[in-house]
Design brief:
- InterPro entries: aa-tRNA-synth_II/BPL/LPL, B3/B4_tRNA-bd, DNA-bd_dom_put_sf, Fdx_antiC-bd, Fdx_antiC-bd_sf, NA-bd_OB-fold, Phe-tRNA-ligase_IIc_bsu, Phe-tRNA-ligase_IIc_bsu_bact.
- Keywords: Aminoacyl-tRNA synthetase, ATP-binding, Cytoplasm, Ligase, Magnesium, Metal-binding, Nucleotide-binding, Protein biosynthesis, RNA-binding, tRNA-binding.
- Its EC number is 6.1.1.20.
- This protein is α+β, with helices and mostly antiparallel strands and 794 residues long.
- It folds into 6 domains: 66 residues, Phenylalanyl-tRNA Synthetase, Chain B, domain 1 (2-Layer Sandwich), CATH 3.30.56; 110 residues, Nucleic acid-binding proteins (OB fold (Dihydrolipoamide Acetyltransferase, E2P), Beta Barrel), CATH 2.40.50.140; 195 residues, Phenylalanyl-trna Synthetase, Chain B, domain 3 (Phenylalanyl-tRNA Synthetase, Chain B, domain 3), CATH 3.50.40; 69 residues, Phenylalanyl-tRNA Synthetase, Chain B, domain 1 (2-Layer Sandwich), CATH 3.30.56.10; 191 residues, BirA Bifunctional Protein, domain 2 (2-Layer Sandwich); 88 residues, Alpha-Beta Plaits (2-Layer Sandwich), CATH 3.30.70.
- The strands form 10 sheets. Strands 26-30-31-35-34-33-32 form a 7-stranded mixed sheet.
- Helix 6 crosses helix 7, helix 7 packs antiparallel against helix 10 and helix 14 packs antiparallel against helix 17.
- The longest helix has 19 residues.
- The radius of gyration is 40 Å and the shape is elongated.
- The N and C termini lie far apart (89 Å).
- The relative contact order is 0.06.
Length: 794
């Protein structure tokens, strides 16, 4: 919300400097983001009237003007402005004046004609965009003839911009900010008197509302006979400019002015372009609407529109259409003032990608009581500026669809408990009353009735927050909270996420946090079978779908680092993935990682070695070891569209796929412009978050012995097949077994390879005998030869 300080001070004028005023607003939660002067300093520029205009005898485009600045004689001024004519009121820089650019005005001669000053445009004065035409004042400026322009236009003013949070829609107006300043400074707010316009004609336009749940209140009025050549009064134009809006003609300017002053967005239709009445309805199938900015919309059954009998005229609460727009020939208007349900405006504004000053207010909440007051204010200003005759107000109201009246019980003891301070009853009553709330005394405190313009006050804590911010957040004491601490209960069979993070951090990884919205093309490359959730209103085209895997964000993070000379990258992310369609979206907690570059940081004590598939597999096995799940999960060689066909494995638990690991596919490496090998893993947290508790077993007092065995198997036999065999081997003396050697080459047939296993044998209750060991080793040999067709090496 941007506004003029001088305008605000007409409503409430505390004895505070600008700096102190904006500090008080910021500390009260209305953060001031910017302050800047409305114009550069001017000297010697006067309000002037052009009395007579004659052509220059030598140059066609120049005019010789006789200008009155309220002195005994007229000044002769030569001007080339295309809009110069007798009777205009405009700014005149007299001889000796200094403009905002630093230029000084001297007496000059134009082809033999002397000029004693310069008639100025808005751009030459430093507060407008036009440079060719003169800045023209309305007729009411005649009473200020000869006054310095900086005093006439209050150019010692500043524009203040407040960065409001979405819940404070009541402060999107001068009246709302004035109300806040009045409470903060205990000053009286002087609101202008708004009286009903005199009814001079009986013309009415029928209004039908077929969507009362979206538009509970709609008011309209006809004003006939306005002067299409009338100009917006200078003070309205200046206040609009200082609030960041440009002048668009007297009718539109007045509706914008009322929006800034009272917070009620309005719209004006050219009455002669309407066909027999107004309808507030939803759009028809295949119906179109061309907006004022030229956008053509394809309406649907959820689009709330203002229409006549033939066609849609405007997208309700957002923007009008070109078919009924005010033009320079408009003489009869229909003024609209309504209350629209916030959710309706917000949803369609986002759907069509539209955001206007009007929708900004409606989607946050506009006072449903305000439309009539705003309509009367706009009518009075329009007739004052452009003449015309007002008709009666047509109103359609469905009070059952209004936001409910909120009543909150506020407890005095609760205020002290939450804020930690004592606030007197008198101060509480005064502050809440100044905010527009109604208080009824109760035994514990008050029953507070919330005004219709405060959509953000719904519970007791909201009222306490109001008292806290008005007291001053900077003044609240710092106190240690006193409460009963209940230790958190942790299920012993769950693997905490922090343990997973710590184990990866200890292995050289850094945690990354990436967006849940990803590039659909990259996601299609990495997870073509994923069922992506498509966003209706994405932030950008490369964030248009929700991630089905964590890999897209990690790949982007890797590329970002590689492009900045970070050759060794080890990242992991713990987050959610999303699959399916509304309303049945599956959210799964996932851990994923990416590795590229050397396995260890560069150092003199180790030979540089690039990370490979087995290094990544070792990291995953470290995670699986946290929950004693290593025996329940299998690494199965398999193909994945995003992974190298010879360096990829599927992680399976009881036959169900729970993750993947492997090298990125060479084609994808080329497409992504990756200059080195990249390895990825992904694992569903649900597969490892539950595990069996370790059970204590007494240590054996008897000695352990080691036995080794070497054997030949087919070259295609994986080591996992051997481990699977021994998991089925039941023995009360087998404590551990390891694969410690793999050999192929000289002395071994080309279709074979040699494995060597180490066994640690120990009994819990006796010393092992040769017979016991012999029986065990025979069982091992039998299992290897039977299940794996192994040949025992001597």
């Amino acid at each position: 919300m941007k506004f003029s300080e001088a305008w605000l001070r007409e409503w409430v004028n505390p004895d505070l400097s600008t700096e102190v005023l904006v500090e008080r607003l910021t500390l009260a939660g209305l953060e001031v983001g910017d302050i800047h002067p409305v114009a550069s300093p001017l000297k010697g520029v006067k309000v002037a009237r052009i009395v007579a205009v004659t052509p220059h005898p030598e140059v066609d485009h120049l005019k010789v003007c006789q200008v009155d600045i309220g002195e005994s004689s007229l000044l002769k001024v030569v001007s080339g402005a295309p809009n110069v004519q007798a009777g205009l009121l405009a700014p005149l820089a007299i001889v000796g004046a200094q403009l905002s650019t630093g230029e000084k005005i001297d007496r000059a001669e134009f082809y033999g004609i002397e000029s004693f000053g310069m008639l100025c445009s808005a751009a030459e004065l430093g507060f407008g965009e036009q440079s060719a035409e003169l800045l023209v004042f309305s007729s009411d400026a005649a009473q200020f003839l000869g006054m310095d322009l900086d005093k006439f236009l209050q150019l010692n003013d500043v524009s203040i911009e407040i960065e409001l949070t979405p819940n404070r829609s009541d402060c999107l107006s001068i009246v709302g900010i004035a109300r806040e300043v009045g409470v903060l400074t205990q000053c009286i707010v002087m609101e202008p008197t708004i009286e009903s316009a005199a009814i001079e004609i009986e013309d009415v336009l029928p209004v039908i509302v077929t969507a009362p749940e979206a538009c509970p209140r709609y008011l309209g009025r006809i004003v006939r006979g306005i002067n299409p050549q009338a100009q917006t009064p200078w003070w309205i134009r200046e206040r609009l400019r200082r609030s960041g809006l440009r002048s668009l003609g007297v009718v539109v300017d007045i509706t914008n002015y009322v929006m800034l002053e009272l917070g009620q967005p309005m719209h004006a239709f050219d009455l002669e372009k309407l066909d027999e009445g107004i309808q507030v309805r939803y759009g028809f199938p295949n119906e179109t609407l061309i907006l004022l900015d030229g956008t053509q919309l394809q309406l649907d059954a959820e689009a709330l529109v203002i229409a006549d009998r033939q066609r849609a005229l405007a997208l309700a609460g957002i923007m009008g259409g070109v078919g009924s727009a005010i033009s320079e020939q408009t003489r009869h208007v229909f003024l609209e003032s309504a209350f629209f349900t916030p959710n309706i405006i917000a949803s369609k504004g986002r759907f069509y990608g539209l955001h206007t000053d009007s929708s900004h207010r409606f989607e946050r909440g506009v006072d449903p009581v305000l439309p009539r007051r705003a309509l009367e204010r706009a009518t009075a200003l329009l007739i004052q500026a452009a003449g015309g005759q007002a008709g009666p107000v047509t109103e359609v109201t469905n009070s059952a669809c209004f936001p409910p009246q909120i009543t909150i019980n506020l407890r005095l003891a609760r205020i002290h408990r939450v804020l930690g301070i004592e606030i007197s009853r008198k101060q509480i009553i005064e502050q809440l009353t100044r905010l527009g709330l109604e208080l009824d005394l109760t035994e514990e405190g008050w029953r507070v009735k919330v005004p219709s313009f405060r959509f953000d006050l719904t519970i007791e804590a909201d009222l306490i927050e109001e008292l806290g911010r008005l007291y001053g957040y900077d003044r609240l004491p710092s106190t240690q909270p006193i409460s009963k601490i209940r230790p958190p209960l942790r299920i012993e069979t769950e693997t905490p996420a922090d343990r997973i993070r710590k184990i990866l951090a200890s292995r050289g990884y850094q945690e990354a946090i990436t967006y849940s919205f990803v590039d659909p093309q990259l996601q299609q490359q990495l997870d073509p079978k994923g069922d992506s959730v498509i966003l209706a209103n994405p932030i950008s085209i490369d964030m248009a779908v929700m991630r089905t895997t964590l890999w897209p964000g990690l790949i982007q993070a890797l590329r970002y680092n590689l492009h900045r000379q970070q050759e060794r990258v080890r990242l992991f992310e713990y987050g959610l993935t999303f699959n399916g369609r509304l309303p049945n979206i599956r959210q799964e907690k996932t851990i994923a990682g990416i590795v590229s570059g050397s396995w260890y940081p560069e150092q003199w004590g180790l030979i540089s070695q690039e990370a490979d598939f087995f290094d990544l597999k070792g990291d995953l096995e470290a995670i699986l070891g946290l929950g004693h799940n290593r025996g329940q999960l299998e690494f199965i060689a398999d193909r994945h569209p995003a992974l190298h066909p010879g360096q990829s494995a599927r992680i399976s638990r009881r036959g169900q796929s729970v993750g993947w690991l492997g090298a990125v596919h060479p084609a994808l490496v080329k497409d992504l412009d990756l200059a080195q090998h990249v390895y990825l893993f992904s694992l569903q947290i649900g597969a490892i978050e539950n595990y069996n508790l370790s059970l204590f077993q007494p240590l054996s007092k008897f000695p352990a012995i080691r036995r080794d065995i070497a054997f030949l198997v087919s070259k295609d036999t994986p080591a996992q097949a051997i481990f699977d065999c021994f998991q089925r081997l039941e023995s009360d003396i087998l404590r551990e077994y390891y694969l410690f050697d793999l050999y192929s080459g000289k002395g071994v047939a080309p279709d074979k390879k040699s494995f060597a296993l180490k066994f640690i044998l120990q009994h819990s209750f006796c010393t092992l005998t040769d017979d016991m060991i012999k029986v065990f080793m025979e069982r091992v040999v039998t299992m290897l030869t039977t299940d794996l067709s192994a040949i025992i090496r001597e």
